[in-house]
Write a structure and sequence with these properties.
Elements: H1 2-8, E1 34-42, E2 48-57, E3 60-64, E4 74-77, E5 82-85, E6 87-92, H2 130-137, E7 140-145, E8 153-161, E9 179-183, H3 186-192, H4 202-228, H5 241-250, E10 255-260, H6 263-276, E11 280-285, H7 293-298, E12 302-305, H8 323-327, E13 335-337, H9 348-361, H10 368-371, H11 377-383, E14 400-403, E15 414-419, E16 422-426, H12 437-447
Parallel strand pairs: 1-4, 1-5, 6-7, 9-10, 10-11, 11-12, 12-13
Antiparallel strand pairs: 1-2, 2-3, 5-14, 7-8, 8-9, 14-15, 15-16
Helix pairs in contact: 4-5
Length: 448
């Protein structure tokens, strides 16, 4: 009632709109203080502690090693087990391409124009997708949901906490910046190449990017000029949802996530970013990222990469299994293992293990405490949430996974998963193995 009264008192003009539409309503689940003891702990920032303890309380990591233990703390003896930060997938389409994979559920690509920066992936998310709970069983505590790669500018992505909810707003990671999904190369060429006034070549792709960025720059300038005026006899510029997103990327408020395979194209994109004064947060897929590892590290660009996907189209042919390890070598690098798969997300720890093994096979000496960064702290950096999660440090979110053994083993399984200190999954307790309402309906029908 109070909100309605307050809203009625506002005089709406062309410049009055919500600063944060569709805000997060996420609230951590209730939890009790929990002590995990006798574990091998990988902190996510390169640290490794043996036979160590960790205390979670009030949704946060309180301490590692030793400290005060509340009288009401639950105690988990993790002797022989490993503990890591919650796994983060920076490239997922869960919810926008949910299971069952039928046409009615295909909501990831707004393939109606090369530039659809106005759309937001969160408005397609179906929270009942069983993929979310399957990912939870694989230790996934946070994930970015992106539009598909049909478009040059595909729209905004959103970061979620992987806690079951009725609405996507209740899963939305508080304070996480939006991402802008962009794509280069074959995908937009293939989708739009046969259409009138649409790019059909790589040079057409780049020209269309630049045209869109120029429009966004002009939009910023128009609003800046209006805000700097006395406004008495000025008419405010019209809102444009497409240009709002592009302007947000130019101003650094929205992170740019770029689907791109070839090294030469990635360098072209980096030059374009310099031209227009924005920063690429992450190149996704980047099958040839190893060829420009030094440049990526120098410019602070993450590479969100597959362990071994290659060869399924021409721009993916020059892939090597050492890609992630090589991108990881330079000082200041940011290698990330991503899934782009409703199945791969269930074993992202083992995808990272593949990359670690290939690096070690060529003499790089990559340890588990280093490689875990590819799916924890580096992933958090890619999404702009590293101040909240991705490492086990006092004051950060208690997003924690207890593994039955070394998480880089093919036999590794997540025994317990905590999100903000609350146990969200327990492999040995069916009551803590979430099932979506959609699945419950299907199971009830099967049982008849």
């Amino acid at each position: 009632m109070h909100r309605l009264i307050a809203a009625a008192a506002v005089v709406f003009t062309q410049t009055t709109f919500a600063a944060e539409p569709f805000p997060s309503t996420y609230e951590p689940a209730a939890s009790q203080p929990t002590l995990i003891k006798n574990a091998t702990i990988l902190t996510g920032d390169g640290g490794r502690l043996e036979q160590a303890s960790l205390l979670m309380a009030n949704g946060k990591v309180q301490w590692l090693g030793s400290g005060d233990i509340p009288a009401d703390a639950a105690v988990i003896d993790a002797d022989g087990k490993w503990v890591t930060p919650g796994i983060i997938d920076v490239h997922s389409h869960l919810g926008v391409y949910p299971s069952p994979g039928v046409r009615a559920h295909s909501d990831g690509n707004e393939a109606t124009a090369p530039v659809t920066a106005e759309v937001w992936a969160e408005h397609s998310i179906w929270p009942q997708d069983p993929g979310f709970t399957r990912a939870l069983a694989g230790g996934i505590t946070s994930l970015q949901i992106l539009p598909g790669s049909a478009n040059l500018f595909g729209g905004r992505g959103v970061t979620l906490k992987n806690l079951p909810a009725t609405t996507y707003q209740a899963m939305k990671f508080p304070g996480a910046p939006h991402g802008l999904k962009m794509a280069c190369g074959e995908n937009p060429k293939r989708v739009y190449g046969g259409r009138t006034k649409a790019p059909s070549t790589r040079m057409g792709n780049v020209a269309a990017y630049r045209t869109a960025w120029i429009k966004a720059q002009n939009y910023i300038d128009e609003w800046a000029a209006y805000e700097a005026s006395d406004k008495a006899d000025k008419k405010a510029p019209l809102r444009d949802l497409e240009l709002e997103t592009l302007a947000g990327a130019l101003k650094g408020e929205i992170l740019v996530h770029m689907h791109c395979y070839r090294a030469d194209e990635m360098m072209t994109i980096l030059d374009m970013a310099k031209e227009f004064g924005y920063r690429v947060s992450t190149f996704h897929h980047g099958v040839e990222a190893y060829k420009i590892a030094d440049e990526l590290a120098e410019q602070g660009v993450c590479g969100a990469l597959w362990a071994d996907w290659w060869g399924f189209k021409m721009e993916a042919y020059d892939g090597i299994q050492e890609n992630i390890a090589l991108v990881d070598r330079p000082k200041g690098s940011c290698s990330v293992v991503h899934s782009d798969s409703d199945e791969g997300i269930q074993r992202l720890n083992q995808e990272a293990a593949k990359a670690m093994a290939r690096g070690n096979a060529v003499g790089m000496d990559i340890t588990p405490e280093h490689a875990i960064r590819w799916v924890t702290s580096n992933a958090a950096k890619s999404l702009g949430i590293e101040q909240h999660t991705g490492t086990l440090a006092p004051g950060l979110m208690a997003d924690v996974v207890i593994w039955n053994q070394n998480p880089f083993s093919v036999y590794a399984k997540a025994d317990q998963v905590f999100i903000d200190g609350a146990m969200a999954y327990d492999r040995n307790n069916p009551e803590l193995q979430p099932i979506t309402d959609f699945e419950l309906g299907q199971l009830a029908e099967v049982a008849r």
